[in-house]
Amino acid sequence: LTDHSAFDAYMLLIEAAGKRVLYSGDFRNHGRKAVLVERMMSAPPRDVDVLLMEGTNLGSDKPTKSERDLEGDFVALFKETPGRVFTCWSAQNIDRTVTLYRAALQADRTLVIDLYTAEVLELLADAAKLPRPGWKNVKVVISRSFARLYEQKGRGEFVKRMAAHGISAAALAQAPHKWVVMIRPSLIRDFAAKGVVPTAADAWSYSQWRGYLEQPDGVALKAWFDGGGARPVHLHTSGHASTADLRAFATAISPKALVPIHGMAWDTDRGGFENVLR
Description:
Layout: E1 12-16, E2 19-23, H1 34-42, E3 50-53, H2 67-80, E4 85-88, H3 94-106, E5 110-113, H4 115-123, E6 138-141, H5 144-152, H6 156-163, E7 166-167, E8 179-182, H7 188-193, E9 203-206, H8 216-228, E10 231-232, H9 243-253, E11 257-260
Helix pairs in contact: 2-3, 5-6
């Protein structure tokens, strides 16, 4: 088990025919499970013939602050914002959901998630102690389009069950200082129909890779918030290891050969990596 923004990510050690191959998979060393990577680096498997290692962030300037430091940034944002804080993040980034939930608790706000995020958390309920519908300061917004989608898939029972922990979109227009609201482009129409539109008292945080804002969905999301005068604050940290952590990991494993499997900078930023084999 390793540290990554995706839940249940693993490294794999394959031993066969007298050889050892370590596959790093996607990993980082600044999330909520960083101790797992640190523990492995302090006592690495011996005599690794080949390390298959990711290098997604090699040569990039993506943010890699710790998830706990990011939590503090969100607490400050929630406390200083007089209105709602809309936040866009991946429902499958479980570390980020935990970060936002913990920050909401500290700022005395309620985290409002959509049906899909509620489903992800419910599916993982038996695997880890994670925030979920029914917990204090968690509400599920039942938007018309998402409810219809679930009903079309024969999941109407799930919608009814989540309604017990639900909040109407219209309620988000009231007492705005109470809410941290998950936002995605597919929610904009339903929110606007219920009077939930950005204002100058609100803030919005895009908690994903900034490059996605240049794609059509990201452009539409930014335009919606710009139109209402909401304050933009980009709070994010990468799901992948920093360049420094990649070098430290490769040094700790000390393989006979390092084979890159991800990343665009292995020809331009190879300093500190030994025995790279393309």
